C-alpha cells in the first residue's frame, strides 16, 4: 500500500508540475489544437485519477468499514497483497488532505456550474427582450437557432444551453459578407458541437480552486486559447483561411468579441495563423498522439490494480 501511494504521488506531481510547463512551450498544439486539448484533458484526468485512487486506497487502510466495502469481492490473497493491516501516520494525513481536496474540487465545480447557469439565464432573457425578428436573406448561413440583436457594433457569439443559441448583431449582418457570416456561424457552431463550454467551466473551476498548481492554471489558459484555434480551423476548412481571417478582423475592429473574453488577446495570433497556415500533422500522427495521450490516465489504474493482479496471477 505504501509503494502504491508513493507511486501515485510521483505520477501526480510529475503530471501537475513539469509536464504542463513543458507543454506550454511546445509549438505543435498551435497546429493541432484539437489534439492539444485532448492532451491537456488527459493530463488533468491523470492527476484527478491519482488523487481519487490514492484517496480510496488510503481510506481503505485507515478505516475498516471502507476496506470491507472496497475489498469485499476480492479473495484474501488480494487483500493481503495491499498490506492494509497497518497505516503509517503520513498515509492517514495524506488521506485527510485528499478528502479535503476532493470536497473543495466538488464545491468549486458546483459553484462554477450554478453561476454559469444563472448568468446564462439572465443573459438569455435580456437578449430575447431586445431581439427583433430574424431578417430575411441570410441564406444558408443561418442554419440552426439564431438570435439577431439590434446593435450597431459587429458582434457574434454563442450561448450554451439546450439548445445552444447563436447570437449575431445587426451591425455584424451589415458589415460581413455572406461568406464571412457563414465562417462566423460555423466557428460558433463548432463551439456548440464540441461542448467547449464544459471544458471552459472545468478549467475555470480547477484554476480558481487551486491557483498555485501549474497544471490547472495552464489548463485554464490553454483551454481558452485552443478552443478558439480549433473553431477557427473548422471555419477555415469550410469557408477558407482568408475569409475566416477577414471575418475575424471585421468583428474585432471595435471589440474583441468573437466568442469569449480572451478573443481580443488572441486576435493577432489567430489572424496570423489563418493568413500563414503552418504544416499540420498527418492523420496517422494525430491518431498516434491521441492514443498515446489516452494511455497516460491508465497509469494510476495500473499502479492501484497491479498488486491485486499480481496476487491473482
Overall pLDDT metric: 85
Tell me the fraction of residues in β-strands, as a range.
Answer: under 5%
Fraction of helical residues: over 70%
Shape label: elongated
What is the string of helix and strand elements?
HHHHHHHEEEHHHHHHHH
* Sheet with most strands: strand arrangement: 1-3-2
Q: Name the poorly predicted regions.
A: 139-143, 256-263
Number of helices: 15
The N- to C-terminal Cα distance equals: 18 Å
> In terms of structural class, how would the helical and strand content be classed?
mainly alpha
Largest sheet descriptor? 3 strands, mixed
The count of DSSP E runs of length 2 or more, i.e. the number of strands, is 3
Radius of gyration, in angstroms, nearest whole number:
24 Å
Please give a structural write-up.
There is one protein chain. The protein has 15 helices and 3 strands. It has 313 residues and is mostly helical. A 3-stranded mixed beta sheet has the order 1-3-2, with helices on both faces. The chain is elongated and about 75 Å long.
Which key features would you list for this structure?
mainly alpha; 313 residues; 3-stranded mixed sheet; 15 helices; single chain
Amino acid at each position: 500500500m505504501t509503494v502504491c501511494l508513493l507511486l501515485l504521488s510521483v505520477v501526480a506531481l510529475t503530471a501537475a508540475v513539469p509536464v504542463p510547463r513543458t507543454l506550454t512551450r511546445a509549438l505543435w498544439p498551435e497546429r493541432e489544437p484539437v489534439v492539444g486539448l485532448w492532451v491537456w484533458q488527459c493530463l488533468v484526468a491523470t492527476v484527478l485519477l491519482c488523487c481519487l485512487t490514492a484517496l480510496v486506497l488510503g481510506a481503505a487502510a485507515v478505516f475498516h468499514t471502507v476496506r470491507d466495502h472496497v475489498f469485499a469481492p476480492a479473495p484474501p490473497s488480494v487483500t493481503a497483497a495491499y498490506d492494509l493491516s497497518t497505516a503509517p501516520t503520513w498515509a492517514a494525513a495524506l488521506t485527510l488532505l485528499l478528502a479535503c481536496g476532493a470536497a473543495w474540487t466538488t464545491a468549486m465545480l458546483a459553484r462554477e456550474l450554478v453561476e454559469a447557469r444563472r448568468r446564462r439565464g439572465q443573459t438569455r432573457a435580456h437578449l430575447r427582450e431586445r431581439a427583433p425578428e430574424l431578417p430575411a436573406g441570410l441564406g444558408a448561413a443561418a442554419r440552426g437557432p439564431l438570435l439577431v440583436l439590434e446593435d450597431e457594433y459587429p458582434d457574434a457569439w454563442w450561448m450554451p444551453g439546450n439548445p445552444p443559441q447563436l447570437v449575431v448583431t445587426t451591425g455584424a449582418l451589415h458589415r460581413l459578407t455572406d461568406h464571412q457570416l457563414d465562417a462566423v456561424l460555423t466557428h460558433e457552431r463548432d463551439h456548440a458541437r464540441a461542448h467547449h463550454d464544459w471544458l471552459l467551466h472545468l478549467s475555470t473551476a480547477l484554476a480558481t480552486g487551486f491557483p498555485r498548481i501549474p497544471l490547472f492554471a495552464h489548463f485554464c489558459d490553454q483551454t481558452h486559447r485552443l478552443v478558439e484555434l480549433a473553431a477557427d480551423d473548422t471555419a477555415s476548412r469550410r469557408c477558407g483561411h482568408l475569409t475566416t481571417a477577414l471575418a475575424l478582423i471585421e468583428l474585432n475592429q471595435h471589440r474583441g468579441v468573437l466568442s469569449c473574453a480572451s478573443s481580443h488577446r488572441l486576435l493577432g495570433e489567430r489572424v496570423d495563423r489563418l493568413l500563414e497556415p503552418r504544416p499540420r500533422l498527418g492523420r496517422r500522427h494525430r491518431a498516434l498522439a491521441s492514443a498515446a495521450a489516452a494511455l497516460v490516465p491508465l497509469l494510476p489504474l495500473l499502479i492501484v490494480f497491479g498488486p491485486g493482479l499480481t496476487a491473482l496471477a
